[in-house]
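Data availability (excerpt). The following record was deposited with the supplementary files.
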Amino acid sequence: MFENFSDVLTVEDVCSALCLGKNTAYELLKLNVIKSIKLGRKYLIPKVYLVDFVEKYR
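Predicted structure:
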């Protein structure tokens, strides 16, 4: 799953992988629905967190 993406994704990568808009992706990250690591103002999403999200809401 998500083989075409690197091990750590950006918000733009998440939008592309899940066919979401940026606002929706940021909202899911802020609410911790999709787990992430926040460095300053930047969100980094390990691919395993994205896979966990997809499996949980499948």
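Summary of structural features: The chain has one domain: 8-56.
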